Amino acid sequence: MDDIELTRFTRQFKVAYFFTTFPKPSETFFQREIRSLLTLGLRPEIHSIYGGARSFENYPIQQFGWVEGLAFPLWLIYWGFKKPKTVLATLYDLLRHPATSWLNFQEIWLGALFGLCRSKHLSNKNFKWIHGVWATMPTTAAWVAHRLSGIPYSMEAHAYDIFQHGGDGLIRQKLKESAFVRTSTQTGAKRLSELGASESKIRIIYRGIPTSPQPPALKTLPTEGQLRFLSIGRFVGKKGFFHLLELLSYFKSQKLDFTATIAGDGPLRDQLIQYRDRLQLQEEVSFPGFLSQDVLKQEFKAADFFLFTGRIADDGDRDGLPNVLLESVECGLPIFTTPVGAVLELIQDRETGRVFHIEERQAWLEAIYGYQESEKEYQHLQKEAFLKLSKDFSLESNMQSLLSVFFKYYENMRT
């Protein structure tokens, strides 16, 4: 397949993209991917199942409203007459694969409702493909729509949707019937194999960011005076922010002069602030809340180290490769991290960052002191991390890879 052939396919490929919620402030990676796909010539019809907006940068979004949802009995009757065996088989599969949590139950059934209500629209508009961006609600919708309309579907599976509570309750069935599954890490690919996905269906395509051909200006560390730490994420258990506060408390006990900004929001916000106060870190640690991308850029540039203390949560949930780590590298900010999820696919110890277990507090501290004493080693981390980013995490290159995968499987379906 040459570039001309791929360009022609991209412009003609009629695909419906299913999101849980789009756009979502905490999922900027999806916004970047859609922006890149539009630049490359793809014109997907974007569907936002739960909330979202009517448009994204003037590009229309098909929202799903409650009024439309209330029509599901009519659609159930319609499809029941048209494809009674398919409807009964789908209901049977939905009931025989129990959800793994209350949240997963809601995701599965709302996705099924959406697929039921939108299948006729997809058939009437002559769509050639459906793509679900998470293995949970969007892919359940794609799976139901596929069964009713006959339109092939593909799916994505990345982190919580394959790890939390053992993964989505219906995922094995959806993997079996999908044309392919895209995951954004090798860790995700391994987990999908464990869940029964055929090796021939699994495609690893990393998340990406627009990379400049020129690396960011190299940072220098103050040999004396205050250091600035930065951490960003949703305030949920898998991010390990309580462990981060304990680590910072240890730094303070060892007389390290620093300030730390922990940006983000989430259900654990109040508990984290209370724990910070209990550790007497009010002067050192701030929680500014959710920050815009422009403000975050300034925070990346002002900080000396990015600290990531991710962990495997009690329910099995964990990060894949947090998008914020890519953004940190893009801005030239060295990363200190725990070895969780797919982080090691970006951060190799002493090359593109530093890796420590959370309990190795003295090792974290000694490494910080070491980089204060060696500007060469500090800048080595920045250079190598940017080279890794440019090689494996280029947004345009990775989206071209995704389009090539669409082309391959679409052609296979046709023949």
What would you say the CATH architecture of the largest domain is?
Answer: 3-Layer(aba) Sandwich
CATH fold category name of the largest domain: Rossmann fold
What value does the average pLDDT take? 94
Strand content: 5-15%
- Helix/strand/pairing class, anyone? alpha/beta
| Count of helical stretches | 17
Helix content: 40-55%
Residue runs with pLDDT of under 50 for 5 or more positions:
none
**How are the strands of the biggest sheet laid out side by side?**
3-4-2-1-5-6-7-8
Q: Could you walk me through the main structural features you see in this protein, from its secondary elements to its overall organization?
A:
This protein is of the alpha/beta class and 415 residues long. The chain has two domains: 3-208 and 394-414, Glycogen Phosphorylase B (Rossmann fold), CATH 3.40.50.2000; 227-392, Glycogen Phosphorylase B (Rossmann fold). It contains 17 helices and 14 strands. The protein has helices at residues 3-12, 28-39, 66-69, 72-82, 84-96, 102-124, 137-149, 160-163, 171-177, 186-194, 241-253, 269-278, 293-302, 323-330, 361-373, 375-392, 395-414; strands at 15-19, 45-48, 55-56, 59-63, 129-132, 153-156, 181-183, 202-204, 227-232, 258-263, 285-289, 305-308, 335-337, 354-355. Helix 7 (137-149) links the parallel strand 5 and strand 6. The longest helix has 23 residues, at 102-124. The mean pLDDT is 94.
